[in-house]
Amino acid sequence: MSPSLPDRVVVATHNAGKLREIRQLLSRLRIDGVSAAELGLREPEETGATFAQNASLKAQAAATAAGVPALADDSGLCVEALEGAPGIFSARWAGPNKDFHAAMEKIEAALRERDCFEPARRRASFVCVLAFAWPDGRIETFEGRVDGVLVWPARGAMGFGYDPIFLPEGEQRTFGEMSSEEKHGLPADGSPGLSHRARAFQKFIQAFDKR
């Protein structure tokens, strides 16, 4: 592990699915991730207009409150035929009860209204931006992206969020049908993992390896 990386960081999320995946990735660097929820830190309002802005404000708020470096993720599903929606509002489309089944139905209904039935008209991307912040105000961001198409009905009970309707380019199974290791496993040859979060994390690792 690079000496520039701490042994412990705050993972600035209250989302159990994100926390599980980020902790899995951090464990490969022998970094302990304690969640903002475990520390009783309040979630800041996501007022940014981009994934990078929202990830940065969450990471900086956690780093300032906890007095230790913090890592935040802001990610979402961007559907071409819906002009990039739900995008940064992906979690909000699921409502206060985090009902992602209802959110997936909402996306499917919107696509059908636009006569988007063929794969070429159902293209989408998962985007993730990781922000790493220090208590002194320094912050860096790393973006990962994976392209694919949306399928219906939803397939698979693994993963979380919109995973069951997202079929990555070149794959036969949705993210909802893949194990966490298949989605996020960072190959030994150093190439990016399959998921958007793994690809952002790979850039995070590479940035510190060069120091």
Features:
globular; 5 helices; Maf protein; alpha/beta; 211 residues
Describe this structure in words.
The protein has helices at 16-27, 51-66, 100-113, 180-184, 196-209; strands at residues 8-11, 32-35, 70-79, 123-133, 139-150, 166-168. The chain has 211 residues and is an alpha/beta fold. It has one domain (8-209): Maf protein (Alpha-Beta Complex), CATH 3.90.950.10. Strands 2-1-3-4-5-6 form a six-stranded mixed β-sheet. Helix 1 links the parallel strand 1 (8-11) and strand 2 (32-35). The radius of gyration is 17 Å and the shape is globular. The chain starts with 7 loop residues before the first strand and ends with a helix.
Q: Which percent band covers the strand fraction?
A: 15-25%
Q: Structural class given helices, strands, pairing?
A: alpha/beta
How many DSSP H or I helices?
A: 5
Distance between the termini: 11 Å
Tell me the radius of gyration. 17 Å
N-to-C SSE string, H for helix and E for strand: EHEHEHEEEHH
CATH architecture: Alpha-Beta Complex
Order of strands in the sheet with most strands: 2-1-3-4-5-6
**Total number of beta strands:** 6
Described by the principal axes of the CA atoms, the overall outline is globular
Instruction: Give the tally of structural domains.
Output: 1
Query: In CATH, what is the class?
Result: Alpha Beta
- The residue-averaged pLDDT reads 90
Q: Do you know the CATH topology?
A: Maf protein
Multimeric organization: single chain
Largest sheet: 6 strands, mixed
